Structures are given as structure tokens and as C-alpha cells.
Write the C-alpha cells for this entry.
Amino acid sequence: MSTDETPARLGAAVAELHRLLRRSTVRRANRPALPEAQVELLLVVRAHPDISVKETARRLGTAPNTVSTLVGDLAGAGLLHRERDPGDRRLVLLRLTDAARQWMADYERHRAELLADALAALDPAARRALAEALPHLPRLAALITPAG
């Protein structure tokens, strides 16, 4: 593979892996899929408990009103808890509910099982090559992540 083809092929492979893994995990977990935007919001809130809607929007690179809509949907589904900041009543702070933590843990367990099964089906050289690439992926992601 020429280096000119590498970015396109890597992007296509990562996108396809993500799509297939998401669909297969949801099917394996026997539950409806959450929209990708809701999952991203839950991941931000898990990483930053008591984050404000405004800060969540900044981290997601979207408008606060978009996040407010997602928050309303997730709160209605029992996956997100929102409350006013006691120090600044204008701010709404977000936290995962126990149901969201359980949903995320189940999803991650099913995803890990799917990946383990698929990796086991690869030949040892392919498994080694993937393992050797793993340390470089977070750096690659950091180089792609927008500043701010």
C-alpha cells in the first residue's frame, strides 16, 4: 500500500469497524441503539461528572441548544440526571444515572467480547500487528482532535 493510499484506507477501515462493531454490539446486547450523538454526550458526562450543558457543548463542538435537546431526551429515558448548580442557578449540571452506567458497562462488555472473538479468529501475525499498532492510535487521535 502506498503512503498516498494509507489515510483513505485507514479512515475507511476505522469507519467500517466502528459501524459493524456498533451494530453487532447492540444486537448482541439485545437492546435498541442510542443515537451516536447521545452516546457521545454520555461519554463526555461520564468523563466529567457535574459538567455544565455549556461545557458539554464546547467539548462536543456543537451548540448548547443541541446539547439541551439531547439532555432532555436522555433525562426522559432515565439515563441522565440534571440539576441546577447551587452556586449559579443559571447553570445545569449533568451526571449519569445508575441506569446509564449499567447500560454503558453492558455495552462495553459486549463490545469487548465481540472484539475478543474476532481477534481470536485472526492468525497470530495479524493479532501481533494490531497489538503493535495500539499504542499509536491515541496519539493519532490526539493529532486529529480539534484544539480547544
